[in-house]
């Protein structure tokens, strides 16, 4: 049983070493290209701007719907109830 867990630990350690090695290779490739840092920053800025715009428009849409619901509720509260007026004899 001990031999099996040691084998799994070694496999786990080797996987991590390979992942770290691949990440280091990618970092070295990115360092060779001078514009990669600037393009990453531009991409992050672009994504944040899009998220902000989407949030703004969704908020405005929610606000409009909420206003329409409140207005409909207000109209319902103050609409004339013809049947009630006829039953009470307030109207001919």
N to C succession of SSEs: HHH
Shape: elongated
Please tally the helical runs, counting DSSP H or I stretches of 4 or more residues: 3
Taking pLDDT < 50 over at least 5 consecutive residues as the criterion, the unreliable ranges are 1-6
β-sheet strand percentage: under 5%
Total domain modules: 2
Relative helix content:
over 70%
How far from one another are the termini?
96 Å
**Structural class determined from secondary elements:** mainly alpha
Total strands: 0
Tell me the Rg in angstroms: 33 Å
Query: What do the pLDDT scores average to?
Result: 76
* Main β-sheet description: none
SSE diagram, text form:
Blueprint: H1 2-32, H2 36-78, H3 82-88
Keywords: Membrane, Transmembrane, Transmembrane helix
Transmembrane segments: 41-59
Give a short summary of the structure.
With 92 residues, the protein is an all-alpha fold. 88% of the residues lie in helices and 0% in strands. It contains three helices and no strands.
Write up this protein:
With 92 residues, this protein is mostly helical. It folds into two domains: 32 residues; 58 residues. The protein is built from three helices and no strands. Keywords: Membrane, Transmembrane, Transmembrane helix.
Keywords:
single chain; 92 residues; mainly alpha; 2 domains; 88% helix; elongated; transmembrane; transmembrane helix; membrane
